[in-house]
Design brief:
Layout: E1 5-9, E2 16-22, E3 25-31, E4 38-41, H1 44-56, H2 70-83, H3 87-101, H4 106-120, H5 127-139
Antiparallel strand pairs: 1-2, 2-3, 3-4
Length: about 140
């Protein structure tokens, strides 16, 4: 398992949330200063929620030493794209990866990620709500 990539904190003094690459794909990662990192299975909807939250910049700053980069997010979304069973979903995910890799404007990246999210998931919750719910279930109050 690689080291964690943090995308931010749900609250200023709360745990950071992010992901780790493990054998077989990516996992949700959550940690607090001075505590061990907890991981959990992450489906494609959750992985895209992490990417959307990163680019929307709606979370508090993550710990600088493990802060995710655009390249980390590109790899994450690329991994979701590889598994996409729906050709249209795969196309949308590939476009999202291209927008990240090409350094397009954040609004463009978010638009493409959101289109892929809506195509590849049946989740009723919004991405940040899904993320908050999963973190809360993993470690309790975020």
């Amino acid at each position: 398992m690689d080291g964690p990539c943090a995308i931010g904190r749900l609250e200023g003094d709360g745990p950071w949330v992010g992901f780790v690459r493990a054998e077989g794909g990516y996992r949700l990662a959550v940690g607090r200063a001075g505590a061990s990192v907890q991981t959990d299975a992450a489906d494609d909807a959750l992985l895209l929620a992490l990417a959307i939250a990163y680019f929307e910049d709606v979370l508090e700053d993550p710990p600088p030493a493990i802060e995710a980069t655009h390249a980390d997010l590109s790899d994450l979304v690329r991994d979701v794209a590889v598994r996409a069973g729906d050709p249209e979903g795969r196309r949308l995910l590939d476009e999202a990866v291209d927008s990240i890799d090409d350094g397009l404007a954040v609004d463009e990246v978010i638009g493409r990620l959101d289109a892929a999210w809506r195509r590849t998931t049946e989740e009723q919750a919004e991405p940040l709500d899904l993320l908050r719910d999963r973190v809360t279930r993993l470690i309790g109050r975020a």
